Amino acid sequence: MPVSTLTTKYQATIPRQVRETLQLGAGDRIEFVIERGAVRVRKARPVSEELHALEATLAPEWNSDEDDAAYANL
After folding, report:
1. Whether the model pTM is above 0.85
2. Of 16, 17, 27, 56, which is least packed with CB atoms within 10 Å of its CB?
């Protein structure tokens, strides 16, 4: 089981086995998912994917030319 130690600034090195499993590289973002007292680490989706996922949730509500005109100046 990979282990890492926190620094005084609460930073930790991600062990090689974890980096390789998640295919992480320098500059990649990671997410911490907290569920039922446990934490999972996963590679974060690119921002563009996050925006597309958000857009899909709004599509049924914002789906007309009238909506586009009403919110055009926001």
Report:
1. no
2. 27
